[in-house]
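Hi R.,

Here are the chain sequences for the assembly we discussed:
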Amino acid sequence: MKTLKVALLGCGNVGSQVARILIDDAADLTARTGARLELAGIAVRNPEAPRDVELPRELFTTDAEALVESADIVIELMGGLEPARTLILHAIGHGASVVTGNKALLAADGAALYEKADAAGVRLAYEAAVAGAIPILGPIRDSLSGDRITRVLGIVNGTTNYILDAMDTTGAQFADALAEAQRLGYAEADPTADVEGHDAAAKGAILASLAFHTTFEMANVSCEGITGVTAEDIAAAKDAGFVIKLLAIAEKLEADGTEGVSVRVHPTLLPRTHPLAAVHGAFNAVFVEAENAGELMFYGQGAGGTPTASAVMGDVVTVARRLALGGHMGVEAASGHFPALPKELVTTSYSIGLDVADAPGVLSAVAQVFADHGVSIETMRQKSHSDAANASAELRFVTHRAPEAALAATVEAIKGLDVINSVTSVLRVEGV
Amino acid sequence: MKTLKVALLGCGNVGSQVARILIDDAADLTARTGARLELAGIAVRNPEAPRDVELPRELFTTDAEALVESADIVIELMGGLEPARTLILHAIGHGASVVTGNKALLAADGAALYEKADAAGVRLAYEAAVAGAIPILGPIRDSLSGDRITRVLGIVNGTTNYILDAMDTTGAQFADALAEAQRLGYAEADPTADVEGHDAAAKGAILASLAFHTTFEMANVSCEGITGVTAEDIAAAKDAGFVIKLLAIAEKLEADGTEGVSVRVHPTLLPRTHPLAAVHGAFNAVFVEAENAGELMFYGQGAGGTPTASAVMGDVVTVARRLALGGHMGVEAASGHFPALPKELVTTSYSIGLDVADAPGVLSAVAQVFADHGVSIETMRQKSHSDAANASAELRFVTHRAPEAALAATVEAIKGLDVINSVTSVLRVEGV
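And here is the predicted structure of the full complex:
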């Protein structure tokens, strides 16, 4: 029986669980792969640092380069761009297959890495990079390879889903829900990457690249976080039968005669009957629309050391099986190259909240602006403020689908109306 | 570029869509696989029969055997045990890989077919056999191959989910919901295989075999359909925060010192907050519990020609890619052999409905029976009947988890009590 040497780079909360599984479940892994998987070493900056899991001291090394050179499979769980990129290229150069969970690196430089792996005849696998434990990249690459995906909607950031779900359940404002999430360990001390949508944007770019067999750069993702979502937005959405989720939306579309791909991340109203609406707490889910398969959803834990380690090990076993069986590894490089479409060309629908003077003629003035921009209104709800001294009212519109540019222009024009005190909320709506 | 000859056996609602995709999407399929896929022919009993899709007459043949002999990939969509089994063995004998959606054949004889395919170095793929368009077998085989699955709960029959969902929404009795489902085409004229749970049982056996790397025969599935579920059961479940679903439950467990596998199909109460509770209409979903990944769910269309064709084509492309790249195909034969455990050894919890005399001492008599069998009660709800002439009441118990044998014995003993008019309902509860 073949022995495959496995090098582990990084031993944080995911890496330490991967090491544990490689050691504790060795017999099972051999049965699954047809090869013996030998953990050859773990490269870390400080071998003496405390770990989540007790591991034999002699496995640790600070010489990542030498460890990589001896390996058949390299598992990169260091995160960040460097030295991860250099070590992955080093591994590919030495004929090793690579398993990584490094979404930042893949979003920044995935296409170049896939091409190098393909040219070298080795595998570059990265299921753990998107939505943690949820098998999503494999199903898109394999199970849906005979279909055409048209759209992907993902709840791919657990922190923001936890915060929005708490706001929906308790009526809390964003700042309070964030503080509670930080207290419970669902949000980091510096929550920027999560709450501003940057983490979701990286995952959206990876999903789009794979779903549409193209190369989509993270810089082209249009991204808006959840810091502007208020308790009032959530309450108004609830009233109207919606829930607010931070979605990464990847679409293939034709606009102005160009076939292209759009990826955007923003808070989104979804009908409460939509399967994504039932995704609570820090869970993740990816909703896929395909020409033949129709609607699919993949649900599970999007983060955490042990769940993410499951995804890493799935890749390790799949790569090891292929090494045991022989033949070319078969990385799929992008087969099409679709341009990134600016968000202005995408169609969506808006939920618009207005604080208006409570006087006759207001609604008709506002409705005229919608009509002038070719945007039609699906529903309107009016709520007069109980404070009688202040003769104002709140209007909430949900539009039909229209180009983003027309919707944005409508909002700008409404702001210029005399009868408007302020535009209190602009959110996008999907799934209707 | 390599050309791969594809033989299609059967041209019903799935087969005709597969033929359409092979012809219409040929350029895309070539880009995905690195090989040309040529539809060499379609074997049917009657080439003149009308089809869902217009296809070139010259593709049709009645000589399935000769067609199989010329093919690199054989797609078997005839259904039934024979001649499907003989033709699949013929294909394997001629070195062709096989893609099938034939759950009846796989549940009856899968282990022997996988072994033959493995020995011949060809692939036997069958994603379409369970849960239609939902990628579930691939994720279990590949993405979760480095983890240990402990339990699978599946809504794998769209007809019964449609009926139960309609009963839940409208309050209808089973017979009326079935008639409506038949009128709308969600249930067949003879609905036995669906409503008695036989279809779900076949899928449960396939899921268990794959999830636990074993061979599980359909004959060992303990199976109960939904014909006994009443509108009153559904209303009482709703009152208590539950929904009733027909689940196929596959579990690996240790009982009486034996590690084994249990598969059972029965109507099941699930909390309305459970992800499976949000699966409406004819949709399917498979909920997987794994040691490291935690809870995962896969959701989508479980039937229909076009969705199922998507799953078939995913297998075709995956097989074709591997043929284009070379090397052994790598069928995974069962690596463990776990005995089928009788359902008496499984632990579950019961929801029990009783029609009782509305008199003092009844509850204590019933509670004593639970205690005598070591079964503890989680909740009890009492409803006095409004009809005053008839001094009876309804009691609904939900138990804690206990061995199935103890629960069944408890029910038998309760039936013997004088104060009991009848046991109106016995349903199992999961997900609590």
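Chain A has 14 helices and 17 strands. Chain A touches chain B through 62 residues (CB under 8 Å).

Let me know if anything looks off.

Best,
T.
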